[in-house]
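Hi V.,

You were right to ask for the full record rather than a summary. Here it is.
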Amino acid sequence: MHPPLTSAPTRDAEHRREQIATRLTFFIAGFSTGAWAPLVPLARERLQLDEGSLGVLLLFLGLGSIMAMPVTGILTTRIGCKVVISVSTLLILLTLPLLALLGGWISMAIAIAIFGAALGTVDVAMNLQAIIVERNSGKPMMSGFHGLYSVGGIAGAGLVSILLGSGAISSLLAAGLTSVVSLILLVLAMPGLLPYGDDSSEKSPLFAWPKGAVLFIGLLCFLCFLVEGAVLDWSAVFLITERGSSIGLAGLAYAAFAASMTLGRLTGDRLRTVLGEQRVLLIGGILAAVGFATIAFVPTAYANLVGFLLVGAGASNIVPVLFSVSGRTRAMPPSLAVTAVTTLGYLGILVGPALIGFVAHLTDLRAAFALLGAATLFIAASFKVGRP
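Predicted structure:
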């Protein structure tokens, strides 16, 4: 149930608490995900895994997320955003130190699957809260929320890397400190987490296949997340194999992409206010396509870095806009719409790297990145899904 009517000053104070809590939740999710990244090579060394075995192990994170996401929307509706976000975040914080400790492949696979399931649950629940909070505020806020996820990812990866690099702290202690920081932030966020979800779907099934506008929005999210996953896994490989770059220079490709995406999201709400959602989708898709064209057809590494910068800037606000749109569609209740869009988007991250590898095997990486440019042009052509 939604809270009873209150006076305007009280509502304003509640809205501020909800907005702060939503920002903290996005930051915590990014912070926890980023903290895991520096622990991966240590897990590989501890378990003595080759690349194939490590790849299969990491697959459990995605499988855990995909299994949890479809039911999260309706769970949030039935027991509230606050309970779902709090419990799943606590599960993340309890699991993270285990990922720095466990020494068996099976035990690690189980822990990674639980970690992924908790991350997937938080992802859906926090986006549902964000849609409700944005709707209550009457102004664009989704880009800023997603921007704080990116900032959290940078902070989590940076903190754990610094702690491990000092040589004075074990991976277990570094992961434990990360969990403590996240726990403090969760406690600060809890007063503003919504004790309700979208009560219009209380009688909905645990999962409903996306339909109508939601299916199309989910397809666009799939394409955008596919772009993100492909750049993450293939940008450095592209610069090394196609442009002959050094490892150090190649590593800057994803850094350029991530930095421009973070900056774009932190300024995205202002852009949405000034330009409107349709122009943000149109300009963003075109800008990303120009970036991919630069990557695919300009044969110099430094120009390609500019291309990755353009892709990050162009893609930065597409997903936040699409999540806002999914929360307004009448094709499905908001809780189920967000669940469907998030799940389809996450599938893009999972299959994107493999799809790019398949295309590259048949042709080359330049053709694969050119196809990604075509995908972003399709997103640009679909700009009318946004609000004018």
